[in-house]
Amino acid sequence: MSEPTTEELLDITLTVNGVRRQAQAPARRLLSDFLRHDLQLTGTHVGCEHGVCGACTVLVDGAPMRSCLMFAVTAQAHAITTVEGLGTIEAMGPVQQAFTECHGLQCGFCTPGFLTTITAYLEENPEPTEHEAREAISGNLCRCTGYQNIVKSVLRAAEIRRERAAGTRP
Amino acid sequence: MKPAPFVHHAPRSVEEAAATLAQVGHDGKVLAGGQSLIPILNMRLASPAHLVDINQVAGLAEVTLTPEAVRVGALVRHARLEHHPEAYAALPLLRQALTHVAHPVIRNRGTTVGSIAHADAAGEMPAVLALTGGVVEAVSTAGTRDIDATDFFLGALETSLAEDELVVAVRFPRFATGTGTAFLERARRHGDYAMAGVAAAVQVVDGAVRDARLSFVSVTDVPRVVDVTDQVRGHEADGLDWRAVAPTVRDQIEPEGDIHATAEYRAMLAIELARLALDEATAKSVAAQYDSAAERGIAR
Hints:
Largest interface: A-B, 33 and 37 residues
Number of helices of chain B: 12
Order of helices and strands of chain A: EEHEEEHHHH
Radius of gyration of chain A: 17 Å
Distance between the termini of chain B: 66 Å
Oligomer: heterodimer
Structural class of chain A: alpha+beta
Number of strands of chain B: 14
Largest sheet of chain A: 5 strands, mixed
Largest sheet of chain B: 5 strands, antiparallel
Radius of gyration of chain B: 20 Å
Shape of chain A: globular
Structural class of chain B: alpha+beta
Protein backbone atom coordinates (compact mmCIF):
# COMPACT_ATOMS: atom_id res chain seq x y z
CA MET A 1 0.00 0.00 0.00
CA SER A 2 1.21 3.54 -0.71
CA GLU A 3 1.78 6.29 1.83
CA PRO A 4 -1.37 8.19 2.75
CA THR A 5 -1.44 11.51 0.91
CA THR A 6 -4.40 13.29 2.45
CA GLU A 7 -5.65 12.65 5.92
CA GLU A 8 -9.02 11.09 5.99
CA LEU A 9 -11.42 12.42 8.63
CA LEU A 10 -13.24 9.81 10.64
CA ASP A 11 -16.63 10.21 12.31
CA ILE A 12 -16.15 9.56 16.00
CA THR A 13 -19.16 9.12 18.24
CA LEU A 14 -18.84 8.52 21.94
CA THR A 15 -20.44 9.41 25.24
CA VAL A 16 -18.65 11.99 27.33
CA ASN A 17 -19.88 12.73 30.84
CA GLY A 18 -23.21 11.14 29.98
CA VAL A 19 -23.72 13.19 26.82
CA ARG A 20 -23.51 11.66 23.35
CA ARG A 21 -20.92 13.59 21.35
CA GLN A 22 -19.85 13.36 17.74
CA ALA A 23 -17.01 15.00 15.84
CA GLN A 24 -14.71 14.39 12.92
CA ALA A 25 -11.02 13.88 13.42
CA PRO A 26 -8.08 12.22 11.71
CA ALA A 27 -7.08 8.75 12.89
CA ARG A 28 -3.97 10.07 14.61
CA ARG A 29 -5.96 12.42 16.90
CA LEU A 30 -5.15 11.51 20.48
CA LEU A 31 -8.16 11.19 22.76
CA SER A 32 -6.70 13.95 24.97
CA ASP A 33 -6.62 16.36 22.02
CA PHE A 34 -10.01 15.20 20.80
CA LEU A 35 -11.55 16.07 24.17
CA ARG A 36 -9.81 19.42 24.34
CA HIS A 37 -9.84 20.66 20.76
CA ASP A 38 -12.74 18.92 19.11
CA LEU A 39 -15.15 18.77 22.05
CA GLN A 40 -13.89 21.89 23.87
CA LEU A 41 -13.57 20.02 27.15
CA THR A 42 -10.33 21.60 28.31
CA GLY A 43 -10.45 20.17 31.81
CA THR A 44 -8.33 17.24 30.67
CA HIS A 45 -4.74 18.43 30.79
CA VAL A 46 -1.90 17.35 28.57
CA GLY A 47 1.54 17.05 30.11
CA CYS A 48 4.17 14.64 28.88
CA GLU A 49 2.26 12.93 26.08
CA HIS A 50 3.97 9.63 26.62
CA GLY A 51 2.05 8.23 29.54
CA VAL A 52 4.35 9.19 32.39
CA CYS A 53 2.75 12.20 34.07
CA GLY A 54 -0.89 11.16 34.35
CA ALA A 55 -2.34 14.67 33.87
CA CYS A 56 -4.52 13.49 30.99
CA THR A 57 -6.11 10.55 32.84
CA VAL A 58 -9.81 10.06 32.08
CA LEU A 59 -12.21 7.25 32.86
CA VAL A 60 -13.00 4.92 29.96
CA ASP A 61 -16.06 2.85 30.86
CA GLY A 62 -15.23 3.65 34.47
CA ALA A 63 -11.56 2.61 34.36
CA PRO A 64 -8.84 5.25 34.48
CA MET A 65 -6.70 5.39 31.35
CA ARG A 66 -4.22 7.80 29.79
CA SER A 67 -6.05 9.80 27.14
CA CYS A 68 -2.70 10.70 25.53
CA LEU A 69 -2.07 6.98 24.97
CA MET A 70 -5.36 6.35 23.20
CA PHE A 71 -6.52 7.44 19.80
CA ALA A 72 -9.92 9.09 19.74
CA VAL A 73 -11.03 6.55 17.15
CA THR A 74 -10.47 3.72 19.65
CA ALA A 75 -12.83 5.46 22.07
CA GLN A 76 -15.60 5.08 19.49
CA ALA A 77 -18.83 4.00 21.23
CA HIS A 78 -17.24 4.01 24.68
CA ALA A 79 -18.24 6.10 27.70
CA ILE A 80 -15.67 8.67 28.82
CA THR A 81 -15.72 10.59 32.09
CA THR A 82 -13.50 13.65 32.25
CA VAL A 83 -12.87 15.89 35.23
CA GLU A 84 -15.86 17.98 34.09
CA GLY A 85 -18.03 14.95 34.75
CA LEU A 86 -17.02 14.50 38.38
CA GLY A 87 -19.08 17.35 39.81
CA THR A 88 -19.80 21.06 39.71
CA ILE A 89 -18.79 23.94 41.96
CA GLU A 90 -22.23 23.72 43.56
CA ALA A 91 -22.20 19.95 43.85
CA MET A 92 -18.66 18.73 44.03
CA GLY A 93 -17.74 15.08 43.84
CA PRO A 94 -16.20 13.60 47.01
CA VAL A 95 -12.66 13.79 45.64
CA GLN A 96 -13.09 17.38 44.51
CA GLN A 97 -14.45 18.37 47.91
CA ALA A 98 -11.57 16.58 49.65
CA PHE A 99 -9.02 18.40 47.48
CA THR A 100 -10.49 21.76 48.48
CA GLU A 101 -10.60 20.83 52.18
CA CYS A 102 -7.08 19.36 52.33
CA HIS A 103 -5.35 21.79 49.96
CA GLY A 104 -4.64 18.93 47.59
CA LEU A 105 -4.46 21.41 44.72
CA GLN A 106 -1.51 23.72 44.28
CA CYS A 107 -0.93 25.01 40.75
CA GLY A 108 -3.72 22.72 39.57
CA PHE A 109 -2.15 21.45 36.38
CA CYS A 110 -1.97 17.81 37.47
CA THR A 111 -5.27 17.96 39.36
CA PRO A 112 -7.66 16.61 36.69
CA GLY A 113 -5.60 13.45 36.40
CA PHE A 114 -5.48 13.00 40.15
CA LEU A 115 -9.23 13.56 40.50
CA THR A 116 -10.15 10.98 37.87
CA THR A 117 -7.58 8.45 39.10
CA ILE A 118 -8.64 8.75 42.73
CA THR A 119 -12.36 8.71 41.91
CA ALA A 120 -11.96 5.36 40.17
CA TYR A 121 -9.61 4.03 42.82
CA LEU A 122 -12.07 4.66 45.65
CA GLU A 123 -14.70 2.67 43.79
CA GLU A 124 -12.33 -0.29 43.96
CA ASN A 125 -10.94 0.33 47.42
CA PRO A 126 -13.30 2.52 49.47
CA GLU A 127 -11.19 2.37 52.64
CA PRO A 128 -7.54 2.73 51.67
CA THR A 129 -4.72 2.91 54.17
CA GLU A 130 -2.26 5.77 53.85
CA HIS A 131 0.20 3.43 52.18
CA GLU A 132 -2.43 2.29 49.70
CA ALA A 133 -3.42 5.89 49.02
CA ARG A 134 0.20 6.70 48.22
CA GLU A 135 0.45 3.69 45.92
CA ALA A 136 -2.82 4.64 44.20
CA ILE A 137 -1.46 8.03 43.11
CA SER A 138 2.03 6.81 42.24
CA GLY A 139 1.30 6.98 38.53
CA ASN A 140 0.54 10.70 38.64
CA LEU A 141 3.19 13.41 38.82
CA CYS A 142 2.76 16.62 40.79
CA ARG A 143 5.67 18.96 40.25
CA CYS A 144 4.60 21.27 43.07
CA THR A 145 5.61 18.34 45.31
CA GLY A 146 2.19 18.37 46.86
CA TYR A 147 1.88 14.68 47.59
CA GLN A 148 1.38 15.03 51.36
CA ASN A 149 -1.85 16.91 50.89
CA ILE A 150 -2.93 14.76 47.97
CA VAL A 151 -2.55 11.64 50.12
CA LYS A 152 -4.61 13.38 52.81
CA SER A 153 -7.18 14.21 50.15
CA VAL A 154 -7.49 10.56 49.13
CA LEU A 155 -8.18 9.55 52.72
CA ARG A 156 -10.56 12.47 53.24
CA ALA A 157 -12.41 11.65 50.01
CA ALA A 158 -12.93 8.11 51.28
CA GLU A 159 -14.44 9.60 54.46
CA ILE A 160 -16.69 11.94 52.50
CA ARG A 161 -17.96 9.02 50.44
CA ARG A 162 -18.83 7.16 53.62
CA GLU A 163 -20.47 10.22 55.14
CA ARG A 164 -22.57 10.77 52.04
CA ALA A 165 -23.51 7.11 51.86
CA ALA A 166 -24.62 7.24 55.49
CA GLY A 167 -26.62 10.38 54.76
CA THR A 168 -24.88 12.40 57.45
CA ARG A 169 -24.23 15.20 54.98
CA PRO A 170 -26.72 16.99 52.77
CA MET B 1 4.61 15.21 20.35
CA LYS B 2 1.93 14.08 17.93
CA PRO B 3 1.93 10.96 15.81
CA ALA B 4 2.55 11.21 12.08
CA PRO B 5 -0.48 10.51 9.89
CA PHE B 6 -1.50 6.90 9.38
CA VAL B 7 -4.38 4.93 7.98
CA HIS B 8 -6.49 3.31 10.69
CA HIS B 9 -7.75 -0.20 10.01
CA ALA B 10 -10.34 -1.74 12.30
CA PRO B 11 -10.76 -5.40 11.38
CA ARG B 12 -13.53 -7.37 13.07
CA SER B 13 -12.03 -10.84 12.84
CA VAL B 14 -8.65 -12.53 13.04
CA GLU B 15 -8.92 -13.45 9.37
CA GLU B 16 -9.62 -9.85 8.41
CA ALA B 17 -6.75 -8.62 10.59
CA ALA B 18 -4.35 -11.12 9.01
CA ALA B 19 -5.50 -10.13 5.52
CA THR B 20 -4.92 -6.46 6.34
CA LEU B 21 -1.46 -7.17 7.74
CA ALA B 22 -0.61 -9.11 4.61
CA GLN B 23 -1.65 -6.09 2.52
CA VAL B 24 0.16 -3.37 4.44
CA GLY B 25 3.35 -5.38 4.99
CA HIS B 26 6.25 -3.62 6.67
CA ASP B 27 4.34 -0.32 6.69
CA GLY B 28 1.93 -1.69 9.28
CA LYS B 29 1.90 -2.00 13.06
CA VAL B 30 -0.64 -3.76 15.25
CA LEU B 31 -2.41 -1.62 17.85
CA ALA B 32 -3.89 -3.37 20.89
CA GLY B 33 -3.41 -1.47 24.18
CA GLY B 34 -0.88 0.91 22.69
CA GLN B 35 0.81 1.76 25.99
CA SER B 36 4.25 1.14 24.49
CA LEU B 37 3.40 1.82 20.86
CA ILE B 38 1.65 5.19 21.21
CA PRO B 39 4.51 6.86 23.14
CA ILE B 40 6.82 5.75 20.31
CA LEU B 41 4.40 7.22 17.75
CA ASN B 42 3.93 10.41 19.78
CA MET B 43 7.69 10.93 19.89
CA ARG B 44 7.91 9.98 16.21
CA LEU B 45 10.45 7.29 16.90
CA ALA B 46 8.28 5.30 14.51
CA SER B 47 5.77 6.42 11.90
CA PRO B 48 4.06 3.42 10.34
CA ALA B 49 1.72 4.32 7.50
CA HIS B 50 -0.90 1.85 8.70
CA LEU B 51 -2.17 0.84 12.12
CA VAL B 52 -4.11 -2.38 12.35
CA ASP B 53 -6.26 -1.75 15.40
CA ILE B 54 -7.36 -5.15 16.73
CA ASN B 55 -9.57 -3.78 19.53
CA GLN B 56 -12.73 -4.74 17.63
CA VAL B 57 -11.58 -8.25 16.78
CA ALA B 58 -13.87 -10.81 18.36
CA GLY B 59 -12.56 -13.64 20.52
CA LEU B 60 -9.23 -12.18 21.59
CA ALA B 61 -10.17 -11.01 25.09
CA GLU B 62 -10.31 -14.41 26.77
CA VAL B 63 -8.23 -15.93 29.56
CA THR B 64 -8.53 -19.71 29.19
CA LEU B 65 -7.28 -22.30 31.65
CA THR B 66 -6.27 -25.76 30.55
CA PRO B 67 -4.66 -28.49 32.67
CA GLU B 68 -1.32 -27.51 31.10
CA ALA B 69 -1.37 -23.75 30.72
CA VAL B 70 -2.95 -20.34 31.11
CA ARG B 71 -3.82 -19.04 27.65
CA VAL B 72 -4.10 -15.27 27.36
CA GLY B 73 -5.74 -13.64 24.33
CA ALA B 74 -4.25 -10.64 22.59
CA LEU B 75 -6.84 -8.20 23.98
CA VAL B 76 -6.59 -9.24 27.63
CA ARG B 77 -5.51 -6.14 29.56
CA HIS B 78 -2.80 -6.56 32.17
CA ALA B 79 -5.24 -5.54 34.91
CA ARG B 80 -7.71 -8.23 33.92
CA LEU B 81 -5.08 -10.98 34.06
CA GLU B 82 -3.67 -9.57 37.30
CA HIS B 83 -7.08 -9.85 38.97
CA HIS B 84 -8.09 -13.17 37.42
CA PRO B 85 -8.50 -15.56 40.37
CA GLU B 86 -8.18 -18.80 38.40
CA ALA B 87 -5.12 -17.58 36.51
CA TYR B 88 -3.56 -16.60 39.82
CA ALA B 89 -4.31 -19.99 41.35
CA ALA B 90 -2.83 -21.78 38.35
CA LEU B 91 0.23 -19.59 37.98
CA PRO B 92 0.83 -17.13 40.85
CA LEU B 93 3.88 -15.78 39.01
CA LEU B 94 1.54 -13.94 36.64
CA ARG B 95 0.17 -11.69 39.35
CA GLN B 96 3.52 -11.51 41.14
CA ALA B 97 4.98 -10.00 37.95
CA LEU B 98 1.98 -7.97 36.76
CA THR B 99 1.95 -5.79 39.88
CA HIS B 100 5.31 -4.46 38.63
CA VAL B 101 4.11 -3.62 35.12
CA ALA B 102 4.06 0.19 34.98
CA HIS B 103 1.25 1.81 37.00
CA PRO B 104 -2.30 0.51 37.51
CA VAL B 105 -3.69 3.05 35.05
CA ILE B 106 -1.34 1.78 32.34
CA ARG B 107 -2.29 -1.81 33.19
CA ASN B 108 -5.95 -0.93 32.60
CA ARG B 109 -5.18 -0.39 28.93
CA GLY B 110 -1.99 -2.24 28.12
CA THR B 111 -2.16 -5.90 27.12
CA THR B 112 0.04 -8.75 28.28
CA VAL B 113 0.35 -10.14 24.78
CA GLY B 114 1.25 -6.70 23.41
CA SER B 115 4.01 -6.37 25.97
CA ILE B 116 5.43 -9.71 24.87
CA ALA B 117 5.15 -8.87 21.17
CA HIS B 118 6.90 -5.56 21.90
CA ALA B 119 9.80 -7.63 23.31
CA ASP B 120 11.34 -4.94 25.48
CA ALA B 121 14.07 -6.48 27.68
CA ALA B 122 12.84 -4.07 30.38
CA GLY B 123 9.38 -5.62 30.22
CA GLU B 124 8.21 -8.01 32.92
CA MET B 125 5.96 -10.29 30.92
CA PRO B 126 8.55 -11.39 28.35
CA ALA B 127 10.65 -12.60 31.30
CA VAL B 128 7.65 -14.50 32.67
CA LEU B 129 6.96 -16.09 29.28
CA ALA B 130 10.60 -17.20 29.09
CA LEU B 131 10.62 -18.65 32.61
CA THR B 132 7.44 -20.65 32.06
CA GLY B 133 8.73 -21.95 28.72
CA GLY B 134 5.75 -20.32 27.09
CA VAL B 135 4.47 -20.26 23.56
CA VAL B 136 3.38 -17.44 21.25
CA GLU B 137 0.47 -18.21 18.92
CA ALA B 138 0.79 -16.36 15.62
CA VAL B 139 -1.70 -16.17 12.77
CA SER B 140 -1.18 -15.04 9.20
CA THR B 141 -3.01 -15.64 5.96
CA ALA B 142 -0.75 -18.69 5.58
CA GLY B 143 -2.10 -20.24 8.79
CA THR B 144 -1.29 -20.59 12.45
CA ARG B 145 2.01 -21.40 14.13
CA ASP B 146 3.27 -21.78 17.68
CA ILE B 147 6.57 -20.09 18.49
CA ASP B 148 8.48 -21.15 21.62
CA ALA B 149 9.65 -18.29 23.81
CA THR B 150 13.25 -19.38 23.23
CA ASP B 151 12.81 -18.85 19.49
CA PHE B 152 10.61 -15.76 19.78
CA PHE B 153 12.92 -13.16 21.32
CA LEU B 154 15.82 -12.26 19.02
CA GLY B 155 17.09 -8.95 20.39
CA ALA B 156 16.07 -5.57 21.77
CA LEU B 157 12.50 -4.99 20.53
CA GLU B 158 13.11 -7.73 17.97
CA THR B 159 11.18 -10.98 17.57
CA SER B 160 10.96 -13.80 15.07
CA LEU B 161 7.43 -12.70 14.18
CA ALA B 162 6.97 -12.07 10.47
CA GLU B 163 5.56 -8.67 9.47
CA ASP B 164 2.29 -10.22 8.34
CA GLU B 165 1.79 -12.25 11.51
CA LEU B 166 -0.59 -11.34 14.31
CA VAL B 167 -0.06 -12.69 17.81
CA VAL B 168 -3.51 -13.89 18.85
CA ALA B 169 -2.55 -15.36 22.23
CA VAL B 170 0.28 -16.58 24.41
CA ARG B 171 0.30 -19.70 26.54
CA PHE B 172 2.03 -19.71 29.91
CA PRO B 173 2.57 -23.37 30.91
CA ARG B 174 1.96 -24.20 34.56
CA PHE B 175 4.93 -25.22 36.66
CA ALA B 176 5.34 -28.73 38.07
CA THR B 177 3.25 -29.33 41.18
CA GLY B 178 4.74 -27.77 44.28
CA THR B 179 6.92 -25.26 42.42
CA GLY B 180 7.31 -21.95 44.25
CA THR B 181 7.74 -18.70 42.33
CA ALA B 182 8.73 -15.14 43.10
CA PHE B 183 9.14 -11.91 41.16
CA LEU B 184 11.28 -9.09 42.49
CA GLU B 185 12.22 -5.81 40.91
CA ARG B 186 13.91 -2.55 41.84
CA ALA B 187 13.02 0.71 40.15
CA ARG B 188 13.72 4.30 41.18
CA ARG B 189 10.00 4.71 41.63
CA HIS B 190 7.59 1.78 41.80
CA GLY B 191 6.07 1.37 38.37
CA ASP B 192 8.97 2.87 36.45
CA TYR B 193 11.27 0.79 34.28
CA ALA B 194 13.23 -1.57 36.47
CA MET B 195 16.95 -1.10 37.06
CA ALA B 196 16.81 -4.88 37.43
CA GLY B 197 14.16 -7.50 37.98
CA VAL B 198 14.06 -11.24 38.37
CA ALA B 199 11.54 -14.05 38.16
CA ALA B 200 12.40 -17.27 39.97
CA ALA B 201 10.91 -20.76 40.07
CA VAL B 202 12.11 -23.41 42.50
CA GLN B 203 10.79 -26.94 42.94
CA VAL B 204 11.55 -28.72 46.19
CA VAL B 205 10.66 -32.42 46.49
CA ASP B 206 10.96 -34.25 49.80
CA GLY B 207 13.00 -31.40 51.23
CA ALA B 208 15.55 -31.36 48.43
CA VAL B 209 15.84 -28.96 45.50
CA ARG B 210 14.92 -30.58 42.21
CA ASP B 211 14.78 -27.58 39.90
CA ALA B 212 15.74 -23.89 40.11
CA ARG B 213 15.50 -21.36 37.31
CA LEU B 214 15.57 -17.62 36.84
CA SER B 215 14.82 -15.08 34.16
CA PHE B 216 15.66 -11.40 34.23
CA VAL B 217 14.27 -8.00 33.41
CA SER B 218 16.65 -5.26 32.16
CA VAL B 219 19.77 -7.37 32.67
CA THR B 220 19.90 -9.78 29.73
CA ASP B 221 19.72 -8.76 26.06
CA VAL B 222 16.72 -10.98 25.47
CA PRO B 223 14.46 -12.68 28.00
CA ARG B 224 15.92 -16.12 28.54
CA VAL B 225 16.15 -18.67 31.28
CA VAL B 226 19.17 -18.94 33.54
CA ASP B 227 19.09 -22.49 34.90
CA VAL B 228 20.95 -22.91 38.19
CA THR B 229 19.65 -26.40 38.92
CA ASP B 230 23.02 -28.11 38.39
CA GLN B 231 24.50 -26.13 41.28
CA VAL B 232 21.91 -27.14 43.82
CA ARG B 233 20.15 -30.29 42.69
CA GLY B 234 19.59 -32.61 45.63
CA HIS B 235 20.68 -30.03 48.20
CA GLU B 236 18.51 -29.73 51.25
CA ALA B 237 16.24 -26.70 50.74
CA ASP B 238 16.28 -25.85 54.42
CA GLY B 239 19.03 -23.35 55.11
CA LEU B 240 20.31 -23.43 51.52
CA ASP B 241 22.58 -20.46 50.80
CA TRP B 242 21.61 -19.25 47.35
CA ARG B 243 24.69 -17.02 47.22
CA ALA B 244 26.41 -20.09 45.80
CA VAL B 245 24.76 -19.51 42.42
CA ALA B 246 26.06 -15.93 42.04
CA PRO B 247 28.98 -16.85 39.71
CA THR B 248 26.65 -18.84 37.43
CA VAL B 249 24.26 -15.93 37.27
CA ARG B 250 27.06 -13.41 36.68
CA ASP B 251 28.32 -15.44 33.71
CA GLN B 252 24.96 -15.33 31.99
CA ILE B 253 23.88 -11.72 32.34
CA GLU B 254 25.20 -8.75 30.43
CA PRO B 255 23.55 -5.67 31.89
CA GLU B 256 24.07 -2.27 30.32
CA GLY B 257 24.65 0.97 32.15
CA ASP B 258 22.39 3.98 31.85
CA ILE B 259 21.50 7.19 33.68
CA HIS B 260 19.96 5.20 36.56
CA ALA B 261 22.61 2.58 37.21
CA THR B 262 26.01 1.50 35.96
CA ALA B 263 26.36 -1.92 34.36
CA GLU B 264 28.30 -3.23 37.34
CA TYR B 265 25.73 -1.94 39.85
CA ARG B 266 23.00 -3.54 37.78
CA ALA B 267 24.84 -6.85 37.83
CA MET B 268 25.22 -6.70 41.61
CA LEU B 269 21.57 -5.78 41.99
CA ALA B 270 20.49 -8.62 39.70
CA ILE B 271 22.55 -11.15 41.65
CA GLU B 272 21.18 -9.98 44.98
CA LEU B 273 17.60 -9.95 43.65
CA ALA B 274 18.20 -13.46 42.31
CA ARG B 275 19.26 -14.65 45.77
CA LEU B 276 16.19 -13.07 47.39
CA ALA B 277 13.83 -14.41 44.74
CA LEU B 278 15.28 -17.93 44.96
CA ASP B 279 14.90 -17.79 48.74
CA GLU B 280 11.28 -16.68 48.45
CA ALA B 281 10.44 -19.24 45.77
CA THR B 282 12.05 -22.01 47.83
CA ALA B 283 10.06 -21.05 50.91
CA LYS B 284 6.86 -21.08 48.84
CA SER B 285 7.63 -24.50 47.39
CA VAL B 286 8.27 -25.91 50.86
CA ALA B 287 5.10 -24.27 52.21
CA ALA B 288 3.04 -25.63 49.29
CA GLN B 289 4.11 -29.17 50.12
CA TYR B 290 3.44 -28.63 53.79
CA ASP B 291 -0.05 -27.39 52.91
CA SER B 292 -0.82 -30.28 50.60
CA ALA B 293 0.51 -32.77 53.16
CA ALA B 294 -1.72 -31.16 55.78
CA GLU B 295 -4.69 -31.42 53.41
CA ARG B 296 -3.99 -35.10 52.86
CA GLY B 297 -3.72 -35.51 56.64
CA ILE B 298 -7.13 -33.93 57.12
CA ALA B 299 -8.57 -36.12 54.38
CA ARG B 300 -7.35 -39.21 56.15
